[in-house]
Amino acid sequence: MEEKVLEILRETFELDTVDATCSQASCEAWDSMGQLNLVAELEDVFDISLEPEEIGAMKCFDDIINILKTKGVKP
Q1: Helix, strand, coil tally for the chain in percent (to 5)
Q2: Domain total in the chain
Q3: CATH number, domain at 46?
Q4: Are 67 and 58 in contact (CB under 8 A)?
Q5: Radius of gyration for the alpha carbons in the chain, expressed in angstroms and rounded
Q6: Which of 5, 34, 51, 69 is deepest in the core (most CB within 10 A)?
Q7: Is the pTM of the predicted complex or chain greater than 0.85?
Q8: Domain range for 19
Q9: What are 20-51's pLDDT values in tens digits?
Q10: Whole-angstrom Cα distance, residue 67 to residue 54?
């Protein structure tokens, strides 16, 4: 799951490289529109539906992983 999330982050934000330190603070492309694109891709790839509170809580790679785990996505 972690590798897939990294791939989604890299593609969504058009980054050359990405690692587990990726966050809103370190990625200029991770703005409000980027967040919407990220959520759409995560919901599509992992076949889940994210609640507004969960979307608002996604501020870094670790947040995404923790939220996906609560949704039953297996590592």
Answers
A1: 55, 5, 40
A2: 1
A3: 1.10.1200.10
A4: yes
A5: 11
A6: 5
A7: yes
A8: 2-70
A9: 999 999 999 999 999 999 999 999 999 999 99
A10: 7
